[in-house]
Amino acid sequence: MTLYEELGGREAIEAVVDDFYDRVLADDSLVDYFEETTMDELREHQAEFLSAVTGGPVEYTGAEMRAAHEHLALTDGDFDAVAGHLEAALRDNGVADEDVTAVLEAVESLRDDVLDR
């Protein structure tokens, strides 16, 4: 069974993504990064991304991580805040501890690209 299936498939991932972005947009330290973003598109890309990295039947078609984030000048603190919101969204949506860890490890592997290092 893939992590995608363990998480509950597309519907469960979309619920996590919605919860995640609600948290991010409520965070005063992060909300400005999303001022000129079409959130429906971003939510769709994020659901596609999470589906792809968890072994789902989806091919991620969004921008490469470095290209998508390089203009933002994000810091480790920003990355950590976003990862914290993702962890909270996963846990609050009933994702098992080992699956939360697996998702966060996949996200952590992208830190240098997201932070343009």
SSE topology sketch:
Elements: H1 3-7, H2 9-25, H3 39-53, H4 65-69, H5 76-92, H6 97-108, H7 111-114
Helix pairs in contact: 2-3, 2-5, 5-6
What does this structure look like?
It is a single chain. The radius of gyration is 13 Å and the shape is globular. Helix 2 packs across helix 3 (39-53) and helix 5 runs antiparallel to helix 6. The N and C termini lie far apart (34 Å). 17% of the residues are buried. The chain is built from seven helices and no strands. It has one domain (3-114): Globin-like (Orthogonal Bundle). With 117 residues, the chain is mostly helical.
CATH C-level class is: Mainly Alpha
- Major β-sheet profile: none
Residue share in helices?
55-70%
From the N-terminal CA to the C-terminal CA, the straight-line distance is: 34 Å
- Strand proportion, as a percent range, falls in under 5%
Proper CATH architecture: Orthogonal Bundle
Count every helix, treating DSSP H or I runs of 4 or more residues as helices. 7
Radius of gyration: 13 Å
CATH homologous superfamily placement: Globins
SS content category: mainly alpha
The ordered string of helix (H) and strand (E) elements is: HHHHHHH
Number of separate structural domains: 1
Gist?
The protein has 117 residues and is an all-alpha fold.
Keywords:
mainly alpha; Globin-like
